[in-house]
Amino acid sequence: MAGLEWSRIIGQEKAIELLRRAIDRDYIAPAYIFAGAAGIGRVLTAKCFCQDLLCIGLEADRRESSRKRFLVSNHPDFLRVEPTYQHQGRLYTAAEAKESGLKRKTAPQIRIEQVRDITRFLSRPPLESSRSVVVIEDAHTMTEAAANALLKTLEEPGRATLILIAPSTEALLPTLVSRSQRIPFSRLSESDLERILRENGRERVLEYPALLGLAQGSAGEAIAGLEILEGLPEDLPRSLDRFISQRLSKAIELAKSIAAALDTEAQLWYINFLQYEDWQKRQDRSTVEILERARRYLLSYVQPRLVWECTLLELAKR
After folding, report:
1. Hey, which residues does 32 pair with through a beta bridge?
2. Rounded distance between C-alpha atoms, residue 261 and residue 112, angstroms
3. Rounded to an integer, what is the distance from CA 159 to the centroid of its chain?
4. Residue 301: how many other CB atoms lie within 10 Å
5. Burial code of 99-121, b = ≥16 C-beta within 10 A, e = fewer?
6. The pTM is what?
7. Is the distance from CB of 94 to CB of 128 less than 8 angstroms?
8. What is the pLDDT of residues 126-145, one digit of tens each?
9. Which end of the chain lies in a sparser environment, N or C, as judged by fewer CB atoms within 10 Å?
């Protein structure tokens, strides 16, 4: 039978038990919060749950059709919402923004226009399934106006189930949390994390202990970190050793490369990586403090190239 299998989810037995029991007993809450760190299985679990929700009450042949349509993102009773950037009156997902070459100075958000789309989607009865299903990824990025608008929808969801994916319930409005059932997701054990990385062909993560440390049990964060590292220009080091040993003139060139190659979000991650990697080797507080100042300047919108020039010069002098 076509479709996603619950067995693909690793290390989230408690969440799976709660959700499958709800389906077996036909006791589905109007809203759920999948709470936990990114990259530990929340999205995959949401897909498995949504797939099964859309099949409730259907005959075997219609279940098969429903699963196939869901897998190709063509199910009339399913809506996925993710944070967007706004540019010239149009909303772009992260993927669309990257493809269009848009400069992204701020983080994407779930906007009130998107919540209005949810309201319109739920205003009609489901067409093929017994309920409509909506997934809101990174729900903690909702603007205040969007969160308040969603609250009205949660008060009268009709024949629908909404799933909010967020790092924690504390990241959401208490009024949203009070109207939702929380499904907890735990950090992955070291063995589960290694298994996921190997199954996804990302064994190279294991070559960088600092990546595993920063990921803190999140396969998604470990893989995202590896992609940043592998995307760095060859002259940019994966260790502070090379920064500290460079001539002062070379520091200026490296600063230019960092500012040109990485957006602000990636630069902040790079600082985290360098701090963690160096602390594991030397436990030198002064180095951590130099990099921490760089983080503060970047967050204060100081010109990135200038930030890195000052930081690398200071490191080189040591």
Report:
1. 163, 181
2. 33
3. 28
4. 9
5. eeeeeeeeebbbbbebbeebeeb
6. 0.77
7. no
8. 999 999 999 999 999 998 89
9. N
